[in-house]
């Protein structure tokens, strides 16, 4: 077991901060959660992540580790003897997990974010088409990666599950705001079943933001300035 005090600089509503929180829970690693105030950056954050100046930052024995997916990998390697392995054991499977995690951040999440910003019917239709195309790709990726098991990682939540699952609360908020079902059982039955398994996992439940609370927070950060 790795020694040294563990702290996590973050914010409750951030999907990127949720990733290391789930990973730490899966590995049964106790940690102190240092909440940042929305709209400001603490001295500790700026000192710990002077390059990007963003959350999350993991502090392990006062050494900072930045970027959510990198932190998850660090947690998996540092506490390798505790809890399930978060990355697959085979090199090809690890490569695929990293590939799809990058796709989720660079393409899928961008489409989700654009959904909230879309104005006019034509723009909304284009965003929906892009998002549903991404969901279809992830449905196939899940079937390929899970090999009939409940999670992308098999029997237990892993790296790719954490990568996608961290956005599920924001997905629900977006569905409420848009009055549109973005994760549809008829179109992506495997993903929908996976989402239920993920959200009900004991490592996830305590750190998954409540939809109503997150919706109120979303109204504040996406509020349009008065003319």
Automatic annotation (TrEMBL):
Q: Outline the extent of the GST C-terminal domain.
A: 90-222
- The record's principal subcellular location, in a coarse class, is cytoplasm
Where in or outside the cell it occurs: the entry states: Cytoplasm, Cytosol
Q: Which reaction does it catalyse?
A: RX + glutathione = an S-substituted glutathione + a halide anion + H(+)
Sorted alphabetically, which keywords does the UniProt record give?
Answer: Cytoplasm, Detoxification, Transferase
Q: Which GO terms describe its molecular function?
A: glutathione transferase activity
The record's top EC class is: transferase
Supply the EC number(s): 2.5.1.18
Domain GST N-terminal, residue spans = 4-83
A GO BP entry is: glutathione metabolic process
Q: What would be one Pfam family of this protein?
A: GST_C
UniProt xrefs under CDD domains: GST_C_Tau (cd03185), GST_N_Tau (cd03058)
Gene Ontology CC terms, in alphabetical order: cytosol
Which InterPro entries does the record associate with it?
Glutathione-S-Trfase_C-like, Glutathione-S-Trfase_C_sf, Glutathione_S-Trfase, Glutathione_S-Trfase_N, GST_C, GST_C_Tau, Omega/Tau-like, Thioredoxin-like_sf
Q: Which PANTHER family match?
A: GLUTATHIONE S-TRANSFERASE U17, GLUTATHIONE S-TRANSFERASE, GST, SUPERFAMILY, GST DOMAIN CONTAINING
Family affiliation: Belongs to the GST superfamily. Tau family.
Q: What is this protein called?
A: glutathione transferase
